[in-house]
Amino acid sequence: MENNVVILAGGQGKRMKTDKPKVLCNVLGEPMIEWVITACENAKLNKICVVKGFAAEKIDEYVDNRQSKAEIKTVMQQERLGTGHAVMQAKDFLEAHKDGNTLILCGDAPFIDADTINEALELHKEKGCSVTVVTSRVENPTGYGRIVRTDDGISGIVEHKDCNPAQLAITEINSGCYWFKTADLLDVLFEIKPDNAQGEYYLTDCIELLIAKGKTADACISHNPNVALGANDRRGLLMLNDIARHEIIGKFLDEGIEFTCTDGVSIGNNVTIGAGTVIHAGVVLRGNTTIGKNCMLGNNCIIENTTVGDNVNLNNVQAYESVIEDDVKIGPYVQLRPNSHIKRGAKIGDFVEIKNSTVGEGTAVAHLTYIGDSDVGANVNFGCGVVTVNYDGDKKFRTVIGDNAFIGCNTNLIAPVRVGKGAYTAAGSTITTDIPDNALAIERGKAVVKEGYAEKKLKARTEKFEKKK
Fold first, then answer.
1. Which of 173, 180, 247, 412 has a C-alpha 20 to 30 A away from that of 192?
2. Can you state the angle between helices 114-126 and 32-42, rounded to 10 degrees?
3. Residue 450: what pLDDT?
4. Active-site positions?
5. 3-state secondary structure 242-296
6. What per-residue confidence (pLDDT) applies to 431?
7. Which sequence spans correspond to the domains of the chain?
8. Which residues contact 304 (CB under 8 A, 6 or more apart)?
């Protein structure tokens, strides 16, 4: 029996004032739908159908570019006529998985979690339910559908705008998450009618239809107090970001991670951090980032989709899609652009940029240097102001620097070029040819001194200045 997921992602979210679908608005740097899909993957649910609508091409682009464990397909909802109508668009997907159970999720409710999904599925199977609703108890249920319970399950869900006074007092709410027996869902899905204040097809009406057919319906109260939370405008989205930020920081505090100050600290949902690491103010960790043990992340680091080893010290570093091995020290004011690999024990100083390059073990890049499209060996020393000149205006080329080389201050290495093992370049050289192992390369233009040139230039500038007075 194969379980699957349908994610409702067709909403525009007009109050967000954006040209992209609401589900692509970010919480801690990740689209809300990414949080939902990640929860499904963590729950071992890998067959997913996303129902798209507004700006559908952006949903397709997101799915196509995502590094996914799951098999994700999309279907179109041309008109947005309610949750039931959205699920109807996934008919072919549901029929292809008719023998299993289907989880229905809202793509703009990012705090669904794998534990809640699995606990609800366990109850669903244990009681032989046709439908199991994930619910939450809240102090202020305004705007949410209310759960109407019976002695042996539930009798239905009433949308807020359709509640009578007694139902408005109910504090158990619908999270918008449901487990259905797929065959039973298909049996009633196309029987629902838009007989409500909104003139929409409510998915919740399937519950009463199933009960009327003698099927069992129940509800699983989530231990996650935020499971039902979503956002309809930017204020609500900011609230979700604040909640997520504090929840994740709290989780890492419980795991022994030290925060000297949480001002400006933002850690994504998929980030992992090793024990003994210390995080300072303004640190942003995003995407599939892994931080090792006993690291020091100084102020204002931004680390995205990057693997950081143990005992690494970063200070005012921006790193994207890169690898930093153990015992590396970097910063301040350093940028690692994608596909940079800094090997064990290397030291990268201030105002250095590295892109699509490998920097070998124990290599020192002190300051004011650009290393692009380069393969640098171990124990290399870079003087101040070195540039690997990788672009000729048309194509990019690589620079190769052997172990134990010494690159003098203000050296330009014009790629493609190879510096041999143990080779030296003299300060101020522009190297255009390969350097053999253990050689010294001096490549400077001949100095030409023109006597009196500056005096004439100064006289002209002075006369021009006097005329302006």
1. 173
2. 50
3. 85
4. 367
5. HHHHHHHHHHHHHCCCEECCCCCCEECCCCEECCCCEECCCCEEECCCEECCCCE
6. 97
7. 4-221, 234-441
8. 29, 284, 285, 286, 287, 289, 319, 320, 321
Handedness of CA 36, 37, 41, 44 (dihedral sign): positive
Q: Is the pLDDT of residue 411 over 80?
A: yes
- Fold that domain 234-441 belongs to in CATH: UDP N-Acetylglucosamine Acyltransferase; domain 1 (2.160.10)
Measured distance CA(206)–CA(216) in Å, rounded: 12
Superfamily of 4-221 according to CATH: Spore Coat Polysaccharide Biosynthesis Protein SpsA; Chain A (3.90.550.10)
Whether the CB-CB separation of 401 and 389 falls below 8 Å is answered with no
Tell me if 328 sits within 8 A of 307, measured CB to CB: no
What's at 64, amino acid-wise? D
Average pLDDT, the chain: 94
pLDDT in tens, 192-224: 999 877 889 999 899 999 999 999 999 999 999
Which position has the token pair 């609703």? 133
Phi, psi of 387 (to 5 degrees): -135, 130
Beta strands at 440-441 and 71-76: parallel, antiparallel or unpaired: unpaired
Instruction: State mean pLDDT over 172-187.
Output: 95
Rounded CA separation 295/338 (Å)? 21
Q: Using 50, 70 and 90 to split pLDDT, how confident is the model at 469?
A: low
